[in-house]
Design brief:
Layout: E1 2-3, E2 11-16, E3 21-26, E4 29-30, E5 41-50, E6 52-54, E7 61-63, E8 69-75, E9 78-87, E10 90-95, E11 98-99, E12 106-113, H1 117-121, E13 122-123
Parallel strand pairs: 5-12
Antiparallel strand pairs: 1-2, 1-13, 2-3, 3-4, 3-5, 5-8, 6-7, 8-9, 9-10, 10-11
Domain DUF3048: 9-109
Pfam families: DUF3048_C
Protein name: DUF3048 domain-containing protein
Length: 126
């Protein structure tokens, strides 16, 4: 799976069947944990759609992190479309009206523009 449409910054994730985690790379270089020196092992990847609005001439962006919306959760080699809600400043994924059960371990969150959506911002590969 790759995320973003900017060639200067593309995040990619590869599922490792042996460890049951995702390995992350940015522009092809593995993301390394500063404390261990090892590549990060991510149990859950959460992608949420949120409204993005340019607020000034410098291009600064205000991202709506309170209204909720579509979410996509990757765990154990599969992804499931969900929704997300703001709960006391936390972006919580929901599945069938209940908070989603997330795998133990490191979670990684990406926030994508709602107007571009998942199909434009994320590329899935087998």
């Amino acid at each position: 799976m790759t995320y973003d449409d900017k060639p200067s910054y593309t995040s990619g994730y590869t599922y490792n069947n042996t460890s049951g985690t995702y390995e992350r790379a940015v522009d092809g270089a593995p993301t390394i944990d500063n404390e261990t020196g090892e590549p990060v092992s991510i149990s859950t990847i959460i992608i949420i759609e949120a409204e993005h609005k340019v607020i000034d001439e410098q291009g600064r962006i205000d991202i709506d992190l309170t209204s909720g919306g579509n979410a996509y959760v990757f765990q154990q080699g599969v992804y499931v479309p969900m929704t997300w809600q703001d709960e006391d400043g936390r972006m919580v994924p929901y599945y069938k009206g209940e908070p989603a059960k997330l795998s133990p371990g490191l979670s990684w969150i990406h926030i994508i523009p709602k107007d571009k959506g998942f199909n434009h911002s994320v590329k899935l590969e087998e």
